[in-house]
Amino acid sequence: MKVVLASLMLLLAFIAIDCSPSAEEEKTVVAANIVGYTVIVETGSINNAGTSAMVLIQLFGSKGRSSETILNDKQRNDFERGQIDTFRIHADDVGTISKIRIRHDNTGLYAGWFLNKVTVIDTGRNKVYEFRCYQWLAKDAGDRKISRELSVS
């Protein structure tokens, strides 16, 4: 009987805890609106600039942030030296975009990647955002980082 009573009291105490999100958490909650974006990625032309790793992007804006999205076109070899790749993605409506996070998972024989720039087009609002990088995303080159947060240029 004491065990049941103690369990009941613990359950009631748990229910009474305020589980509502803070103001910062509300800003990062996945938005209900899914919108279309065009993501254009320019890989550098220097030697060994291309990557065989999986590349992911996340958008940050006035309404919060999106989930990470894998950039992959199964019809071609993405992120090759000197190449411009275009992806059409659907992601959370983040409002006016202020920055992106782009990274790779460091897999494959040639994971290191020299990224020139990323352009994101919010197709619903017809707004264009450019993010310049001109750096390595590599464990063995540059500053050895494989993830970059880039602000609007």
Please characterize this protein's 3D structure.
This protein has 153 residues and is mainly beta. It is built from two helices and nine strands, in the order ααβββββββββ. It has helices at 2-16, 23-28, and strands spanning 34-43, 55-61, 64-65, 69-71, 84-92, 97-104, 113-122, 127-137, 147-151. The strands form two sheets. Strands 2, 3, 4, 6 and 9 form a five-stranded antiparallel sheet that branches. The protein is globular. Mean pLDDT is 85; it is low at 1-31.
Write a concise keyword list for the protein shown above.
14% helix, 5-stranded antiparallel beta sheet, disordered N terminus, 153 residues, mainly beta
What's a concise summary of this model?
By secondary structure, the chain is mainly beta. The protein contains 2 helices and 9 strands; from the N terminus they run H-H-E-E-E-E-E-E-E-E-E. Strands 2, 3, 4, 6 and 9 form a 5-stranded antiparallel beta sheet that branches. The protein has a 4-stranded antiparallel beta sheet with strand order 5-1-7-8, with no helix packed on it.
